[in-house]
Amino acid sequence: VQRIANMGQTSPEIIEEVERGLEGRMSSVMSQSFENAGGIGAVAEMLNVSDRATERTLLENLTQEDPELVEEIRRLMFVFEDIGKFNDKDMQTVLKGVENSQWATALKGASIDLKEKVFGNMSQRAVEMLKEEMEYMGAVKLSLVEAKQQEIVDIVRGLEDSGAIELNAGEEEELV
Known about the structure:
Blueprint: H1 2-7, H2 12-31, H3 39-49, H4 52-65, H5 67-76, H6 88-97, H7 100-106, H8 112-120, H9 124-137, H10 142-161, H11 169-175
């Protein structure tokens, strides 16, 4: 610790030491039984609020050790494509909370089904404007697309927290 204070900046060795410590703690947490309090659901929630790069790295590393566990975690996570499962009422609530420029970038990497769900809940004029904006942008870096998708996921989670929408309502309503 004194060595760090004297240097005024952190040396690569110190960074590696901290990294090893974090890896050790993460591996011990991951190796504990996921049936304990929190379990897989807690891991999915943590990954939902982390950035995409962290999420991808952790899941890729965990896949090498336990691919079945990773699949269970992924099933519990809310991801951008899950927006396509919303009923029309919730979709319109989400549309009100998200800027067109965010949709334009985020939909660049979306499935046709999700695009159709978004477009189907907009006025024809709004759809035309959004498609025009998407076309005008041209090619966009994947990292930017993922960042915008995560922004929208964060907005959706905020809407859920406030009670404006329910993330699992679409499937339940179809069954009733």
